[in-house]
Amino acid sequence: MPWSSPDGAWPLTRGQSYAPATSPSSHTAAATAGYAPASAPTTGGASPAQPYAWPAPGSWSGGAPPEAAAGRQPRGRRRRGVGAGVVVLLVLVALLAGLVLGALGARWLWPSTSSGSALPASSSTVSTSRAPESVAGIAAAALESTVFIEVFGGDTASSGSGMVLREDGYLVTNNHVIDAAADGGGTVAVTLADGTQLPAEIVGRTADYDLAVLKVDQDGLTPLPLADSDAVVVGDPVVAVGAPLGLEGTVTSGIISALNRPVQAGSSGEGASFINAIQTDAAINPGNSGGPLINTAGEVIGINTAIAQAGGQQTGSIGLGFSIPSNQVRRTAEQIIETGRATYPVIGVALDTRYQGEGVQVLQDDAGASTPAVTPGGPGDEAGIEPGDVITHFDGQPVTTPSELIVAVRSRAPGDTVVLTVQSDGGQEREVEVVLDEAGSD
């Protein structure tokens, strides 16, 4: 990519020369012609080109001086005999002596460390090794296990990132990265860190968690370990690795900005992903999706999946990136590898998205709805939740929007028991225990 200056004057043309700086107009002649060489005195006085000239013979009034008329050696002849050539010679000698003494002084003040260089050279040994916990150390290990994913579906193509999950060729990425090639609609190509490009099979995927597992026919890969994302705290340093805008092997760094951030990615209807996300200020851009977010121990704490957009406009990173916690990645990836599909937990109630009051309200009237307000025989029904009830807390944490409640539920596993704080129509508040059921993910 050629660089240019703000005014467009760069780059310079090879061989172009610069005109010397022009002096003020009063000195133009001297700057152009230089100083005229010393010459013998001439009749008529000093020439303007000479800084000084001796008086010409015969310039005294009354003719020749008395000494010449008497035939004696004129007084002052010896002084006039010191010609301009002797003066120039003396000046040159003085200049030469100054240069020699100046050079000797410079060598004494700044002794040269090498005979062929005018600048001192570093005496330290160059090393590219870095501490494993440094950003460079983390990147060196993570880049080997991060892959570049290209998807070709019909007349469209897209790209994203992924990471090695197991040494026998299993990889994990986002569902939205490979969605265009799902159900036989296209192909997926994976480029490994060494440049090897391989076709990939989609083992399984889930739009609910925005995760997908791929398989390539390659053994001996280096997997990245999954950390316990429940041990992450705000302020922890992290490194994001991926291929933003197709730029493979890109590394950015930052910190954990927030935890348990409810994020709804994708459309608001079918195919929407609800993520109890880790928020980071590490730069994440389109194409980073599916790449790992790594702690200082070199372990994956999340899979990068979404970024906030200012004003709803498609932009680059504004310091608000979101990752799927590694505990969720582990649970879902293991399900997909074992069964080819994933499940997610449910409480068996439908929520009213039009409700504006405190908490989250269960539908009062499910007429025309695709699902009943309270699923008969479901977890909510068995816990005593009724249509129109308002859920204000989930395991002691307040919930204010349907997305927050859905994300909180999906951060758990089927079979877990959770406590909901519920208000009935009369305003009476109670706590109920709900054993989460499971539903199959598309």
Automatic annotation (TrEMBL):
Keyword annotations: Hydrolase, Membrane, Protease, Transmembrane, Transmembrane helix
SUPFAM superfamilies xrefs: PDZ domain-like (SSF50156), Trypsin-like serine proteases (SSF50494)
Superkingdom of origin organism: Bacteria
Residue ranges constituting the PDZ domain according to the UniProt record: 348-426
Matching InterPro entries: Chloro_Bact_Ser_Proteases, PDZ, PDZ_sf, Peptidase_S1_PA, Peptidase_S1C
Region (Disordered), start-end ranges: 1-77, 365-384
Biased composition (Low complexity): 19-73
Residue spans crossing the bilayer: 82-110
PANTHER family, alphabetized: PEPTIDASE S12 (PTHR43343), PROTEASE DO-LIKE 8, CHLOROPLASTIC (PTHR43343:SF3)
Protein name: Trypsin-like peptidase domain-containing protein
Species in which this protein is naturally found: Oceanitalea stevensii
The organism's taxonomic lineage, starting at the top: Bacteria, Bacillati, Actinomycetota, Actinomycetes, Micrococcales
